[in-house]
Design brief:
This protein is 31% helix and 36% strand. By secondary structure, the protein is an alpha+beta fold. The chain folds into 2 domains: 4-81 and 240-249, Gcn5-related N-acetyltransferase (GNAT) (Aminopeptidase, 3-Layer(aba) Sandwich), CATH 3.40.630.30; 84-238, Aminopeptidase (3-Layer(aba) Sandwich), CATH 3.40.630.30. An 11-stranded mixed sheet has the order 1-2-3-4-11-5-10-9-8-7-6, with helices on both faces. It is globular. The protein starts with a strand and ends in a 5-residue tail after the last strand.
Length: 251
């Protein structure tokens, strides 16, 4: 199911869609992360979502602090805090990473549309039902920026088949790069797939002469944080928040 507009009176300020594997959870995403909604906007969105159907929880996308404050004022609580990291593509540490050779067992190739179901399966196993993306959401991530790169790490399966072990989606906009999603099947973690896909994304960004790459991940995801820092990413002081509202508490 694709995201749908929140209504004519709200224009294109935000969109909603059911969570991947729990229709009682509605995900609310701002159309522009740099815009801070008013208190009235948030109140109107909550009222419209509650009136639209049987919803138990409203969950926001990752929000910058000023926007997150608006939702907290409306009764939302923090569900997850995300570290925001940046890699300067002119940093010598990044240059060294770009020169790395992947382990022989790691084979990186294009993530095709026919691979999206397998990618969604990896995503669910990596992040769990609460935080995973389904096929439609992965497809939307690929369309979130003017330029995108979707890649995966595969293992051979039979004479002509291949098994998807990990995937990454990167984007480019206004001179900046974004590692938007990286998921590695848990049995395949710590075998070089995540590192190879991250370096692959950085090479693509360097060829496009982008200034930097930004990525975010949960502050509790110590494995991902260690990976990014080992490549040359540095944490920024600013953090993002995902917030949730228990709709039953406000009805």
């Amino acid at each position: 199911m694709r995201s749908r507009p929140l209504g004519a009176t709200l224009g294109r300020a935000a969109s909603v869609r059911p969570a991947a594997f729990d229709p009682s959870v509605v995900q609310l995403r701002l159309a522009d992360d740099t815009v801070v909604p008013s208190n009235g906007d948030v109140t109107a969105w909550v009222e419209q979502i509650c009136a639209a159907g049987d919803v138990a929880t409203i969950r926001t996308s990752a929000l910058y602090p000023r926007a997150a404050q608006r939702f907290r004022q409306a009764g939302f609580a923090v569900a997850d805090t995300l570290a925001l990291l940046r890699a300067d593509l002119d940093d010598p540490a990044i240059g060294a990473a770009l020169a790395e050779t992947s382990p022989p067992a790691v084979r990186v190739g294009s993530l095709r549309r026919g691979d999206l179901a397998a990618a969604a399966g990896v995503d669910r196993r990596a992040f769990g039902a609460r935080w995973c993306h389904d096929v439609d959401e992965i497809d939307q991530i690929r369309d979130a920026t003017p330029h995108a790169r979707a890649r995966a790490s595969f293992a051979r399966a039979g004479a002509f088949g291949r098994e998807l072990l990990a995937y990454a989606i990167s984007g480019a906009a206004a001179g900046h790069g974004y590692l938007q999603r990286l998921a590695v099947d848990p049995p395949q973690q710590r075998r070089g797939h995540g590192r190879a896909l991250t370096v692959d994304a950085l090479r693509w960004m360097a060829k496009r002469r982008l200034r930097d790459c930004l990525v975010n991940t949960s502050v509790a995801n110590t494995t991902a944080l260690a990976l990014y820092r080992s490549i040359g990413f540095h944490p920024l002081n600013e953090q993002l928040e995902v917030l949730e509202l228990d709709v039953r508490a406000v009805r």
